[in-house]
Amino acid sequence: MKQAPLVFDQLPPEEQQRRAAEFLERIRTRRSVRQFSDRPVPYELIETAIRAAATAPSGANQQPWRFVVVSEPELKRKIRIAAEVEEKENYERRFPQEWLEALEPFDTDWHKEFLEIVPYLIVVFRIDHGLEGGRRVKHYYVSESAGIATGFLLAALHLAGLATLTHTPCPMGFLGQILDRPPNERPFLLIPVGYPAEDATVPDIRKKEIDEVLVRR
User: Fold this and answer.
1) Number of domains in the chain
2) Domain enclosing residue 149, as ranges
3) pTM score, two decimals?
């Protein structure tokens, strides 16, 4: 493969530390939000964040992701109705007691009004295999690649001053049907995006301390 020169900005140590600390301070304030305002969000913010997500590394650079941005009220309503059907089944029949107990501190249930209130829904699809001229092309490390891109997306949206939620209604096949996606694209994550409601609250939880997640050898 043809090679190109690496573009790399070598920063002074002080600037490296300043940028790292600034990012930490900003990203540590990100929280999953379930109470959204219907206040409009400039589409340019959404597109710019997706542009950032699309720069993520991926297996063999196959970029096995698709970001479908939903703002049409009728589509959002269809998604909410379908999601609530699955979630109601989950909460009332599918989820084991252990999972229900783990969810109790978050005070969640099968009602998902925010799916209609929020200005945008970003549905992340993983592309399990490519299609080139009718030929099936194997993709590598699809889940890992889509997960990294989603992480980029969540960070970009937060730094743009927007609130998000990582929502995973299960099963999610209805998203592909409602959004008319081809069979090689599978729903990976549903991300409501907007501004939080003025009276929004979040669970009082803690993140693990650094010595709980970092091992230095």
Assistant:
1) 1
2) 34-194
3) 0.95
